[in-house]
Amino acid sequence: MSQLILTKTRLFEGNWEGVLHYEGGTGPEPAVEVTYLEKAVPGVALSAAGDDGKWALRIPLPPESLSDGTHTILIENAGNGERLEKITFIAGEALADDLRAEIDLLRAELDMLKRAFRRHCVETM
User: 20, 38, 69, 123: which could form a disulfide with 55 (CB 3.0–4.6 Å)?
Assistant: First the structure.
């Protein structure tokens, strides 16, 4: 049997959406397992997406995952346990700290470049 391929199409209004298909052909309707913190995610929908052997996958983000920190939802082939995709997102304070650190680093590098540029201008005059 061919390998399943999952391609993300969008994240919209709290729902992750993607398209499943078999590499190099068609096959039976796939079975997927979606988990968050080792628990099944409720409301996962898989439906045929046309006659070309593709299936539309829709995963509602669990409300309990929408909190401070980093969260990961796993999507696996239920038939063989192969990981098809992972959804990772960061929210709240953890994100703010990461962004502040990156901005501080960028500011320090920009200041260093400004000093080097000014020094270069003085030396070349």
Answer: 20
Check if the beta carbon of residue 55 is closer than 8 Å to that of residue 20. yes
Q: Are 35 and 78 in contact (CB under 8 A)?
A: no
Q: What burial letters (b/e) apply to 74-97, b meaning 16+ CB within 10 Å?
A: bbbbeeeeeebbebeeeeeeeeee
Please give the Cα distance from 95 to 1 (Å, whole number): 41
Question: pLDDT averaged over consecutive 10-residue blocks of the chain (125 residues)?
Answer: 88 95 87 94 93 92 89 92 90 73 84 90 88
Could you tell me the sign of the dihedral formed by the alpha carbons of 29, 34, 38, 43, in that order? negative
C-alpha dihedral, 90 to 78 to 41 to 20, nearest 10°: 70
Residue 120, strand partner residues: none
Rounded Cα distance, 30 and 44, in Å: 13
